[in-house]
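Check out a protein:
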Amino acid sequence: MQVRWLQCSYPKNNPEVFKTDNIVPLVKLKTSPAMISIEPNDLLLFARVVEDGSFTRAGERLGLPKSTVSRRLAGLEAQLGERLMLRTTRKLTLTDFGHNVLEHARQVMSEVQAAAELAQHRQAEPSGQLRISIPNDFANVVLGQLLADFTVKYPRIALQVDVSPRRVDLISENFDLAIRMGTLDDDAAIAARRLAVFSSSLYASPLYLRQHGTPHEPGDLMRHAALQLAAPQREARPWLLTREHATWQDTPPCRTTANSPELLLRLARAGAGITAVADHFVEPYVASGELKPVLPDWCLPPIEAWAVFPGRRLMPARTRAFLDALDAEFSAPRCQAARARAAQSRQERIEAARLEKREA
């Protein structure tokens, strides 16, 4: 297999002019004995000659001698096996084959220009208004410090944060980015990046368990009060529990539904019922004794956190900066350590529950 690398760069003083002598790996063509090997730079050169209508003018814009331009186009025609243009002393006339090849050459030129614009875009200092939507609990518990640091690092970005629990329409409401939890809708206009995965469990206060008893099997939950996270249709979500190869799914009697995990945690700590919540967020309350795990050897489905944004071709620098900040936050040692502690604590509770059952 042969590989051909595109050679192209833009002078700083004129981004519309490109030279073909600076190597920037961008495009590679695979060839086989049954395929023609084409130099992408020659396609760019061909498109520029047609645009300028002259070998001389194209050579001047590209910083190449007219003889080099002529030689390379002649080589391209030899590779393709047909004439691309008819040349006289006064004008250039495209052949039918030349018209067809020109469409592909212009596509190559468009991709090169897009790559150069992207590079210039990323190097520019991010500025302007950045509209983001984040669930209230996630913003307060997880991203509060990140938001503060971001505004200090990028003073030219005006941050506008929506903390409503609803799923905003990124396109029609002109949002740059949103944080979403759980399953995403299938939307071709939206791109997504997974930020983190959180394990989750059932929890209740010691007061509630003393008053109402401790469930020992998932079926026991049907005799308890559930504090449920509301679904988009405002209905209670069924709980799906798994343990090795066993599965249980049902909707326990629901005393309260809310679209705020933080509120459900407060109600659970006050003895109002049993709630399902991400282990990462409940660790401080378990350590303080305000909450206890329920059915610790049974697992709820993990909760995924996503950053979603319009799937446009060129992302604004301000959105890119915030997305990079999110990536850095969730890959930071302190965040990884917190998730590791939660996972270790959960595993210890599972082992303790299994040991208790064996001894019983």
Q: What stands out?
A: The chain has eleven helices and 14 strands.
